[in-house]
Amino acid sequence: MRARMSIVRTNFQVELREVILRDRPEHMMEVSPKGTVPVLLLDGGDVIEESLEIMQHVLELDVVRRRTALDFTQR
Ligand SMILES: N[C@@H](CCC(=O)N[C@@H](CS)C(=O)NCC(=O)O)C(=O)O
């Protein structure tokens, strides 16, 4: 839930896939053999498998994005 909340809060675009845990999709198991949710597959192929780490990653990206926007408005 916290991972999803951070994504909603920051408005990052993701492709959200609901998973039925008793019938895990093959692709999910390929990228994350651990088989737990949430799991975030990044554009570059890296995988984040812990909700706390997903949240931290998303919030850090948001800080960078905000700083960049601020720099731009100050020019
Ligand atoms: N520490 C993990 C826990 C993840 C976790 O246990 N997720 C549950 C669903 S909420 C799960 O995938 N369970 C797999 C199972 O029950 O087989 C995190 O916060 O990301």
Explain this structure:
- The protein is mostly helical and 75 residues long.
- It has a single domain, classed as Glutaredoxin.
- Helix content is 52%, strand content 5%.
- It has helices at residues 2-10, 26-31, 51-74, and strands at residues 40-41, 47-48.
- Helix 1 (2-10) packs parallel to helix 3 (51-74).
- The longest helix has 24 residues, at 51-74.
- The protein starts with a helix and ends with a helix.
- 8% of the residues are buried.
- The model has no long low-confidence stretch (mean pLDDT 96).
- The structure holds glutathione (GSH).
- Residues 21, 36-37, 50-51 line the site of glutathione.
- Glutathione (GSH) is lined by residues 21, 36-37, 50-51.
Give the number of domains. Answer: 1
What is the CATH class designation?
Alpha Beta
Mean of residue pLDDT?
A: 96
* Percentage of β-strand residues: 5-15%
Q: Unreliable stretches, pLDDT < 50, 5 or more residues? A: none
Short description:
The protein contains 3 helices and 2 strands, in the order ααββα.
Itemize the secondary structure elements and their pairings:
Blueprint: H1 2-10, H2 26-31, E1 40-41, E2 47-48, H3 51-74
Antiparallel strand pairs: 1-2
Helix pairs in contact: 1-3
Residues 21, 36-37, 50-51 line the site of glutathione (GSH).
